[in-house]
Amino acid sequence: MNDQPARKTFFGGCPHDCPDTCAMVYEVEDGKLVEVRGNKDHPMTRGTLCVKLKDYHDHHYNPDRVLYPLRRSGPKGSRQFTRISWGEAIAEISSRWKDIMAKYGSQAIMPYSYLGNEGLVQGLTAGDAFFNKLGSTVNEKTFCASGSSTAWLLTVGPTGGVDPESFVHSKYIVIWACNSISTNLHHWPFVLEARKRGAKVVVIDSYRSRTAKQADWHIMPKPGTDGAFAMGVIAALIENGLVDREWVEKHTVGFEELAERAKEFTPAYVERVTGVPAADVARFAQDFAKAQPSVIRMGVALERHAGGGQTIRAVCAIPALAGSWRHVGGGLLQMPLWEFPVDWARVSRPDFIRSGTRVVNNLQLGQALTGEMKLDPPIMGLYVYNTNPVSQAPQTNKIVKGLSREDLFFVTAEHFVTDTAAYADIVLPATMAGEHDDMMFSWGHFYLTINEKAIEPCGEAKSNAEIFRLLAAGMGYDDDQFKMGDMELAEHYVKWDAPQMAGVGMEHFRKHGYFHLAVGTPDDRLPHANGNFPTPSGKVEFMVRDAKNFVAPPFRMMYEAMQSGEDVDPLPGYVPPRESPDSNAARAADYPLNIISPKSHGFLNSCYANEPHKIKGQGEQFVMLSPKDAQERSIREGDPVRVFNDRGDFEGFARVTDDVQEGVIVATLGYWRSMNRSDGSVNSISSDAFCSLGRAPTFSDNLVQVTRVN
Question: What pTM did the predictor assign?
């Protein structure tokens, strides 16, 4: 008989930088991962995976994958490497780092990571304890959500906000700067269910995204002017008697001061700045206040301009003024991660950090490596994991220049020889999710999800945690933390006795795969009907006195010192973009078009952008521009075009469409420059300037010119 071998199943959690954190099931046959599918029992993700993950099992066996340690054997950037053993790799890294430390000091070494993996064990903070022990420069990691987090924490405190599943109870749903269908897919069915029950869906975005096209109403402000729109809504709520006075008097601080500032935002001013008709601003305020429960789902793109932090403070005020928090499904959703019971100090070990240690931000890697930042000591050793800065960071030409330094010892842990890894001296093979243990928190829902190791790693790949254990041994560190296995670390990091866990332990996860935090159910969660905000006052703080700018500690290795510390405006307001025709006419004379660079539908940041079938589905790099802007440049549909400013350039194919406003272009993010038409990508033109709060990026605050390529 030809009996089919039995398949073994394991629970998984999607490792990617996405709010959905899908619950998955790994199926293994004869030691091979043969299928990865969604867990149908999961109430939020419901057994479906996005287009990125549809063939995730095959991704593990991609023939281009790095499977063994590699040493550079040609010029930096040449992609010429020779296979070496793990023993050789660890010995060389340890020796080189010890030499750097002896000559320059330990701060001459810098880690660099982000959310290429979102797990507690393998993710953003996987190397924090090791590098804090080593005494390296502290890495401040603010690619995404740091500005909105600072604004959120100042205004409403570390609350998870509205459960995304509670949106089924909402009557007026606002999706603000979030393309849910492409980047938050599993929330969309809850929005559609609410619509079936009579809810209205409003999308606020500066171009007609896939999600905007499905809305009942699309409001399209000029890029970077959402803050003026939000302040205009606040003014309209107050002027038209739409404020829930009883709730505001009991549960907010600074209403009178906010009302005084809002007087500056007259209908005529807001219309001129944003391009949104004054009547629409008034209508939005009326609808949001009257159609309760009303709720706002904020996207991280809302922070990506000079005034992003102030914008989010203004948006946070709107549901409070309307009294939306009174209702199940009313209020605001940013990132539920604030309520996850994780002991971040155990993860990152800030107790290892030496007093006076400096901080270097991810967004300014180019400045740090090229000497523009004037660091003493200079960065002489760099370790990159869970990110691909030559695609994802701003001013990528400057980063390439820095990575090309012959005196820089650069190590990376990777799945592929990415555009960043091409410049490495040592490339270490990292595991994919089916090959290691982890525990996944979420920044889009309230479920903690286990990820079980389903197969032995391909080749000689090792998990991030295992690599740091080997490096710790190589450096002579014998702390208990560097001896724990991956799942031991996961158990060590979760606060099992916290109320959110309701007595649940690891056995529950091994049996079910996930757990919804005990913070109320989607049908009854009312976190702030009676205030109880985790702020100093216990209220929504429209006004904060004597606040200083900061980055939330989990984004900076749990380091509390050396914050930038600029004064924070006591009230929300509008800060114009640094680069727009209205705010910077001189720059606009050379570069007249605002560029928006949203996430791609078919890639997850730069993940999968090296796979031909994913590129085929996503399409080659495209540039969306309005018919008028195209005509002025003699550009037709499908023409090759060059997008440029004084920071760099990239090429793509023109899509001439009414989906973008005049004066605006859209080019999605994630494409590898080495696989584009020219040696450039979207972030070649991006500024590395910070937004107003949280040292967040300004990816949507850049002016460019577009020309046809002959």
Answer: 0.96
